[in-house]
Amino acid sequence: MEDTKTLSTANLTIGYPPDKVLFTDMNLHLPQGKLVCFMGPNGIGKSTLIRTLAGIQQPLSGTIEGLGSKNIAVVLTDKINAGAMTVEDLLTFGRYPYLNWTITLSESDREKVKEAISNVQIEYLLGRPVHELSDGQVQMVMIARALAQDTPVMLLDEPTAHLDLNNRVEIMNLLRRLAKENNKTILVSTHELDLALQTADLIWLASNQSIKIGIPEDLVLDGTFDQVFQFKGFDLKTGKIEHKPFRDKTIQITGEGPTYLWTRNALARNGYKIQESSENTLLVKDGKPGWTLVTPHQSRDCKTLEEVLNLLEA
Amino acid sequence: MSLKLLFLLGLLCILFLINISTGSVYIPLSDLAKSLFTPDNAPEMFSSILWKLRLPKALTGLTTGAALAIAGLLMQTLFRNPLAGPDVLGLSSGASLAVAFVLLLGTSGSDYLPGFSAWSLAIAASVGSGLIFLLILGAAKKIKDNTSLLIVGLMVAAASGSLVSVLQYLSTAQDLQAFVMWTLGSIGGTNWNEVLVITIILVVGIIISISLTKTLNTWLLGDNYAISLGINLKKARITMVLVSSILVGGVTAFCGPIAFVGLAVPHLVRLLVPTTNHKILLPMVMIGGASLMLLCDILTQLPGSSKILPLNAITSIIGAPVVIWVVLKSRGIRM
């Protein structure tokens, strides 16, 4: 942290020789202490860019400022396949750039590893062999390992892939905290659109051999996201899947709060057209959820949304 | 950890003593000590056997065992493949091929085999494994991934193996027997000069391997992480190939192609100390390899008989079940 170096590129073109070019002529800069989410369709070259920025892969042309194992730590998608290796062993690797060939940890090295452990809160995993951990646990350990490397910049390639929602949120929150509290400069590639929009300071959006950069909200509102991802049936501005009504029944919903939102969701998903006024009215009680369905013929109380749907269908 | 190291060291000492006291002539412990430390007071026959035969043989076993085991560990780590061994790079096959040329294509090599000292076979074996080494090194410079290098090594081994069988097919029965004897492997018949050469090779190998400790550990994380931690992949790969080639080439030159020790020892050691840290693995594997080689050599001597079984038969009979057992026990060997 003493070092305030970050990472920037000049006229960087990346890809694979002889003629596979992924991104051309990029002048990128990672702003210090910010969480940058790197998004883009599959196969566009996100992993390649991360590997190139980390100095693992050679660029086709151009330069990168700030390379080196004391400036950049990475979390990659590569599987760690080293059986008996324990979590401690793995974390120790974070200190390797600072050790000589005898790989003897100093007191301050141990301190850095400890800090990383408590930052990521993986005390309960210590002593376990890496191959016994779940995907989410491995990901947390790899992040701790990168933290132990104590570099100003961290590059993470899809750290939330294959994880459940809880783990995904936990990891993104952790990264956000590291950027804010530890002043880390973090670039993370992810497919988690909703999570990225809610946690990123800045979005890098990959399209057409170039990268569009902006804060999440701007890129949503100016349509850049729609343009890049060409959403099919997903309305980014409401954050919802688009539902086309497929029933001729219309319905009017009155109420508020989460119960109202989920009621609306259930009806839209089941093909009802929701209108401002209709002969059918559904009264929603928030708090302890309850519904009253009023139709021209009857008025009935329901305890679950399933009951409401069954009534409507009848 | 240090307790297990002491255990292995103790085991090595005991095996060494058993190794030099047993054979067609049994030397009791008291005479052993006398012959070792005050040869003038010991029975003439005992000290002669000990200093001319047993000690050079035991020391050869000690050093070659350690060398092969280190080479095995290096190869398993380099290829991140638990079934890699010192012979996967085709070095022993290269040595076999060169020796086959000398023994099988000579006007009749076996005619002057006695004068055809171990040195000429050693030189042939070194040249053979050296040439294969240059080939593999060239491949290692060109090829980016370890699996391809492994495949190249295996193919080189297969090709030289087939050339050897052609030579065998064309040779006389006498020559063939001399060649087969060589392929059976033996740590006997070495003199002090040869022991010195093997020891120097081993020491060089050990020094370079120890200097590689950090690289070897990092290697287990995969190429990308290794680079991200500042390891120069190409340089490291070539150094690893270089060291194991020197070790295997040296051993094969003097003792013939010895099977299984290099493959089995790292697994046996991991069984004793489940770790991936080469700082611990390297010394353990070294002592373990020396111990296993001495044990195998003890077992070649049929009790109460002057007959000696081929060394490779013993190493394979011990090595193969060990590897099978390890596979079954750990449900897929892990490194």
Write the layout of secondary structure elements.
The complex is a heterodimer of chains A (314) and B (335).
Chain A: E1 8-16, E2 20-26, E3 35-39, H1 46-53, E4 61-65, E5 72-75, H2 87-92, H3 107-120, H4 135-148, E6 153-157, H5 165-181, E7 185-189, H6 193-199, E8 202-207, E9 210-214, H7 216-221, H8 224-229, E10 234-235, E11 240-241, E12 250-254, H9 257-269, E13 273-274, E14 281-285, E15 290-294, E16 299-302, H10 305-313
Parallel strand pairs in A: 3-7, 3-8, 5-6, 6-7, 12-13, 12-14
Antiparallel strand pairs in A: 1-2, 1-4, 8-9, 10-11, 14-15, 15-16
Helix pairs in contact in A: 3-4
Chain B: H1 2-21, H2 29-37, H3 44-78, H4 91-105, H5 118-142, H6 146-170, H7 173-183, H8 192-211, H9 213-219, H10 223-228, H11 233-255, H12 261-272, H13 278-300, H14 311-330
Walk me through what this model shows.
The complex is a heterodimer of chains A (about 325) and B (about 325). Chain A has about 325 residues and is α/β, with parallel strands linked by helices. In chain A, about 30% of the residues lie in helices and about 25% in strands. Chain A has 2 domains: about 10-235, 3-Layer(aba) Sandwich (Rossmann fold); about 250-315. Chain A contains 10 helices and 16 strands. In chain A, the strands form 4 sheets. A 6-stranded mixed beta sheet of chain A has the order 5-6-7-3-8-9, with helices on both faces. The longest helix of chain A has 17 residues, at about 165-180. Chain B has about 325 residues and is mostly helical. Chain B has helices at about 1-20, 30-35, 45-80, 90-105, 120-140, 145-170, 175-185, 190-210, 215-220, 225-230, 235-255, 260-270, 280-300, 310-330. At the A-B interface, β5 of A face α9 and α10 of B.
